[in-house]
Specification:
- The chain has 376 residues and is of the alpha/beta class.
- It has 2 domains: 57-182 and 360-372, 3-Layer(aba) Sandwich (Rossmann fold); 195-358, Rossmann fold.
- It is built from 15 helices and 12 strands.
- It has a 6-stranded parallel sheet, with helices on both faces. A 6-stranded parallel sheet has the order 9-8-7-10-11-12, with helices on both faces.
- Helix 2 links the parallel strand 1 (57-64) and strand 2 (83-88).
- Helix 2 (69-82) packs across helix 15 (361-372) and helix 7 packs across helix 13 (327-338).
- The longest helix is centred in the N-terminal third of the chain and has 46 residues, at 3-48.
- The chain is globular, with a radius of gyration of 24 Å.
- The N and C termini lie far apart (88 Å).
- Mean pLDDT is 92; it is low at 1-12.
Length: 376
């Protein structure tokens, strides 16, 4: 090539490179401005809706955790706002702890899985001391075979599943109340996150068969997006695993990591598990939302969820949360909201405001304590 042509080519490449650099800087500026504006609005919402505000009750509550990281953290956070003496206990020694500290209430989360064989014997001993006891079931209705034996030992039964209330009453429990779970606003909140937590679409959860079948039906569509799927069994149950393998993180995701993924996503999917489980011997349907519903909303992210019966009690579909009834509809909603940023953000902001106003663990604990101590 002649020298002059080489020179012209170099000049042209330089101009092209300069334009590309300018375009990159402009795109980066726009993205940074958009993120700043979004998070600024989230901060303003947080200031306008600071959450639960009331004087703590002069009560001592011994809380026995289940081992659900998000829930246990949220309950202790809520008790810290609602009672003067919250105490974190241990399933192995709760009767001894109750004897030593003489609480006004022993509150047990779930009473399943990690609890010792003498769990119910300990509950009976605590009641014999004259201490009130309450259990809050967070796995209903998937383990009715087990909870049928547990519930009658407690003074008060609270369940996050609205469809279990009458059933617990039918097996002899006198004080049964519907009490949804909630979000820890200190953990599940809007945040600026590292790029590795950012995505167009995020789903976190175990690959139960209905979830794997759902993702299979939209896998080809998702493969063209920036996606995060995290949880166990996806490699075993997702037929189209190869399409998404590079965007799937297998195994357990700690709560703090979940919060970052939620905060970094444009859309978070929520697909409830089916209730046809071997230990749901009562055959009860799932009518209530999972705790993830509140946690996603608390991060200021658009949530796209399948519908459970009690969802409208918590969030207004189309205004505070987006819903779908089939994989095809979910695909179209994802496409729509990715292309309509202002609508997506408005719904996310509305959900954040509603969560902070109505759905913190302090709100739930205030309701529980009011029920137990007669002022709610």
């Amino acid at each position: 090539m002649p020298k002059r042509e080489k020179g012209l080519k170099l000049k042209s490449d330089t101009r092209t490179s300069a334009r590309a650099g300018s375009n990159g800087r402009s795109a980066g500026f726009r993205a940074g401005w958009n993120d700043g504006y979004f998070l600024g609005m989230c901060e303003a919402i947080g200031r306008r809706t600071p959450g639960f505000r009331a004087e703590p009750r002069k009560l001592k509550v011994l809380y026995i955790p289940q081992g659900f990281e998000s829930v246990d953290h949220g309950v202790m956070e809520g008790l810290g706002q609602t009672v003067t003496e919250p105490i974190a206990g241990n399933p192995e020694t709760m009767a001894e702890q109750a004897r030593e500290c003489r609480p006004d209430l022993v509150l047990v989360m779930n009473g399943l899985h990690v609890f010792p064989e003498n769990h119910l014997e300990q509950v009976d001993r605590i009641r014999a001391m004259g201490v009130r006891t309450a259990v809050w079931f967070a796995d209903d209705p998937y383990f009715t075979q087990d909870t049928a034996a547990i519930a009658p030992h407690y003074d008060y039964v609270f369940t996050h599943e609205i469809g279990c209330v009458d059933w617990y009453r039918s097996i002899g429990c006198a004080n049964v109340h519907y009490l949804p779970l909630a979000a820890s606003v200190s953990r599940y909140r809007p945040a600026h996150v590292d790029p590795r937590y950012r995505s167009d679409v995020c789903f976190i959860g175990t690959a139960f068969e209905n979830r794997a079948a759902f993702i299979d039906k939209i896998a080809r569509f998702l493969s063209g997006l920036r996606v995060v799927i995290a949880g166990g069994l996806w490699d075993a149950r997702l037929t189209r695993y190869a399409l998404l393998a590079g965007q799937i993180r297998l195994g357990y995701t700690p709560a703090e990591e979940c919060a970052r993924y939620y905060a970094g996503a444009k859309i978070v999917l929520n697909v409830h598990r089916h209730t046809a489980e071997p230990k749901n011997t009562a055959g009860l349907p799932g009518r209530s939302v999972n705790p993830r519903t509140f946690e996603i909303a608390g991060c200021g992210t658009l949530q796209l969820t399948d519908v459970r019966e009690d969802l409208p009690l918590h969030y207004a579909p189309g205004e505070e949360i987006a819903v779908f009834s089939s994989p095809g509809e979910a695909r179209e909603r994802i496409r729509y909201y990715l292309n309509h940023e202002s609508e997506r953000r408005k719904i996310a902001w509305n959900a954040l405001m509603r969560t902070r106003r109505d759905h913190t663990y302090a709100h739930r604990l205030d309701r529980l304590l009011g029920t137990v101590f007669g002022d709610g």
